Amino acid sequence: MTGPILSVSDLSVIHGNECPDCRTSTGPEVGTNTCASCGAVVACTDVSFDVYPGQVLGIVGESGSGKSTVLQCIYQDLAPTRGDALFAEFEQGDRSIWQANRRQRRELRTYSMGMVYQNPRQGLNLLVTAGGNIAERLLAADWRRVEDIRDTASHFLNRTEVPINRMDDFPAFFSGGMQQRVQIAKALANNPTLMLLDEPTTGLDVSVQAGVLDLLREIQSSKGMTVIVVSHDLAVIRLLADRTLVMRHGQVVESGLTDQILEDPQHSYTQLLVNSAA
Amino acid sequence: MLDSRILSVQSLGKAITLHLLGEKQVQALDDVTFDVSDGEFVAVVGLSGSGKSSLLKCLYRTYLATAGSILYQASTGQDIDLASASEQDILKLRRNEIRYVPQFLKSAPRLSALDIVARPLVESGYDADIAYSEASRILSELGIGSDLQSSFPSLFSGGEQQRVNVARAVVAPSRLMLLDEPTSALDAENRERVFHQLQKVKDGGSTIIGVFHDRWLLRHLADRVVVMEHGKVAQIGTRDEVAIARYVGAETVPAS
Q: CA–CA separation, B55 vs B13, rounded Å?
């Protein structure tokens, strides 16, 4: 059996001046993210997990649980306070990606990872055409021939069911669901090894949600892509994830196979979460 | 018998702690012990609440066992304890040799019956054309005509959904099949169709452990019967040895 493609250990993100009490005065037992002694906001502490090739890892939790923070650190939108992340495509996993220099970070984002944000505004430039958005990403990866870029852009827009005749329109004038599809096309365009999805269907209406989820599932299984998906929605986790972490107040309270988490939750918070879902 | 053993459940226990109900403890399984031989069809019967589904879920690791072990002899010859194996090993076994078939169809939205049944074949590397024609053949054998095959199962009757569920399970049989009441919503005619499909899976060499309420199916398929009572094994033996009348509904034979 092959080893993990990504191995995160002891990830902590603390906003503000850290003090020795930060760790013990926050978390699920205390019920807060704010350190009582120094007032620092502890976004997440001591988060550790492995992701294996071709697998989908789900991270579930309420807002403020730190789940998006974890994803932002992996995509290097955010610098962690401490922790290591060994990634198979960065120096053979010998050194943490959080020790990478600026150029190496850009390379990781450009060649190895793709990110889909909850809000398409974060992943797309809404005043550049749909095709142009994808071209941006390909140009960053040193694609030079206009024809190739256009072909690839239309291929991925087609794949994500965005009408090709809208390729030269601005996403600002697209519906929310279509913007999300363009964002997914853009994230896929460089054929990333690791796909990061941050609440990919939150805010979309139910029928559009089903379409986007089915698309993600189909692309994941046909490409054997490794995915980390963050969602507060258990239905999304149930449909996509092989394994799931449950987070609360910045800490992992439970992890396991997704069906086990949903049907035999061990932690009181997970039992509450599962029993609150319709 | 020992040589061909595929599964050995030893003193299996499952206690569920309900944190939201004042730490209430429910003992779903208690000291469950039995062996299963390769290629055997074992039926699990018992009143509702006796632990039948909990047992299947522990075998599939949807439930975490709290006591005992479940030794599974993998196709590689290696003995794996399903109660304590790593998540990676469990996922690999689920992909390659152990399948759980729930009572009712659960599937992604926007997929036709044909898509659902063809998918296991496509995912195991079959050509799409072959996968779809095979899926269509099995659905037809289970009485789901071609007019229904291309529509969404969410619009189907309960019995039709259950047959799509069976079709998905038998289209690419795995080495060990765990069936949780796959015939509960079927009439006599469709039950017989399912029977023929399960017979074929059994003839193909799969080991089957299934929860059944249906006496007719038990009599025709089961090699051995495990009777559950209050989370424990009350009886175990061949279908003729075990008195199961109390646990299984009276045989539904049309009155002549």
A: 9
